[in-house]
Amino acid sequence: MVPFRQFVLKVHSRCDLACDHCYVYEHADQSWRRRPKVMSQETIAWSALRIAEHVKRHGLDQVAVVLHGGEPLLAGPGRLLAIAEALESALTGLCRLDLRLHTNGLLLDDHFLEVFEEKGVKVGVSLDGDRAAHDRHRRYADGRGSHARVLASLARLRARPHLYAGLLCTVDVAGDPIAVYEALAEQEPPRVDFLLPHATWEEPPPTGAGDWLTAVFDRWVADGRPMAVRLFDSIESTSRGGPSFTEALGLEPSDLVVIETDGAYEQVDSLKSAYDGAPETGLDVFRHTLDDVAAHPGIRARQRGLDGLAETCRRCPVVDSCGGGLYPHRYRAGGFDNPSVYCADLLQLITHVRGRLRRTHELTSAQLGELAAGHGGAAAVGALAAGQASLRRVALTAAAARGPAWELLTRIDAERPEALAAVLAHPYVRAWAVRRLAGTAGEAHLGNIAAAAAIRAGVTATVEVEVREGVACLPGLGVMPTERTTISTADAWEPVRRLTAGGLSVVLEDTDPYRDCHQWTPAPRLTSEQALAWQELFAGAVEVIGREHPAYLPAMAEGLTTLTPLSPPAHGRDTSSAAREAFGAIAATLPADAETLALLLMHEFQHVKLGGVLDLFDLFDARDTRLFYAPWREDPRPLEGLFQGAYAHLAVTDFWRARRDPKGRERFARWRDDTAQAIETLLGSGTLTPLGERFVRGMRESAAPWLAEAVPAEARRAAQEERARHRARFDRT
Ligand code: SF4
User: Which numbered atom of ligand 1 lies nearest the CA of 323?
Assistant: First the structure.
């Protein structure tokens, strides 16, 4: 038997509102008409006794009791105090009591709050969002809306944050999900509960709840999850194998029972929406123990986990998160052996949340703050890299044709997942998948990916591969010389060269055909001498960074995996690039000295990191097509370009800041001003999401002290002259 741990006490059975979506008064069950208005002192005493008896019998260390209605505040502060005292005296010394109250908020004045303060009662308030959404349903019997009054109560509750449990919002797909979300967030709740309106297969709801909740979820994530949202938190938790935090989702046995104002035990309250009398058990606190209730077939039905679900649900890929949805929503004349009437919505939302979860992994808000401030730590970049590994897997799955190469990959994934993970860590796997999905790359390269994974896993297989210029590229691993497109993974192959220095080890990538995603032409296969020149300069550059900017190295060691040599462009200047679809790779021409390469690595790695962040979070409105001027470019750029430039120049400024020679001072003076100006343009763009604004403000906090740093007048003058020369070049073009 699963003991009860949650008890809903219906302390008052009437309400001072006449909400049209309320399951108590507006749905099939009309039992409220037969019950006393207020829970009597005797019923309270028996209820407390039954709970205490149950706690003792099952050795429970905590129970939650929710004072509910109707509207529980109609019971008055005196009755609520008596209930709290009865529970307290019955349970003190036995277990912890988590006492809560759910209210429509209309009567919540300081008198009530004093009682709740004294007894530690936490208060949840129903708010359906902005005024339009709330007053559409939550109206007095005479039609007046209740929004203004609820907001006044919430102001009082926010003044006692330790009593503020959160908000309960009934979803209405007719309302604007973002306006509702923003109105809820404005009330600074510690938690929000989104409740799907009660409906059954007999009375189905309007369509669109999946879209509505998905839009709210995306906005909540983009905002950096400012409060807990029980529905979303439960999906994420169950997707990781953890518990659900709501009766509405998950496979855990229900441990909730309702006690009505007349002492009758009932099943989950929302069953009132199914049919008249649906929640009834025929048992009550005066004659029956809670163990008697636990044995009731209706209660048992909600405790059977997977076995208690409809066949469709048992075969569903998201059943461990969904659990068939809220029990009453499964009702169709004849019973509950059906998926939820919200099945399509739940499937859509859970799939969406899981997709996002796979990408976001565990990048914490503190780590995001570190990245915003500049270099970021190894853990933050590790989380970005983990997100990229998931993205590559998703991209590969979407791009790959099903056939022998795919079968080989799935076999390796099952037997030696680390071998496939190592191949997926190579940046240009995603570059191929992106092109394949766009129809600009063939499918044969999947064979090269499978061959690389097979070699890493020690699996001998014959694979069809893409061959260019007499070699088959083995992504991240090397090349196999061959003239044939069918290779054996047992054949000889040449390993890729690596550059190593100061704890960094990166692939010197000069073979992968998809390394040409950096807008510049990649260098052809390097000679041994050229590879040696790269190694020497790389070692020098890492030494410079380690000496002058040691804080940048751990993140680089974690996220920089690949250096791709570029052919010198016609203009003859040093060139470098990072590509959004190739996280971890930097492409560059071989510069003249180690200092230049160090600067280039710091600059481009900023692009790598920001690309990783943008793949996980919405920092600005991607639909905004306006162009913005960056101080260092003659052409206006989309916001992402300005964002990338500002973030990269944060590191460029930092690089020159450490240099005290005249050139270093001049560059520092120039880049700090230009970077600060770009940051202000971003902040004034009006297109940043709240999370994006936080991120850019983090950038500003790093740059602000630099503006106050003393720089010789000569360096400032030289910086201005350089800027003017630069502008003059724009004007001529
Ligand atoms: S999504 Fe549908 S089929 Fe899957 S468990 Fe939920 S209700 Fe059942």
Answer: 5
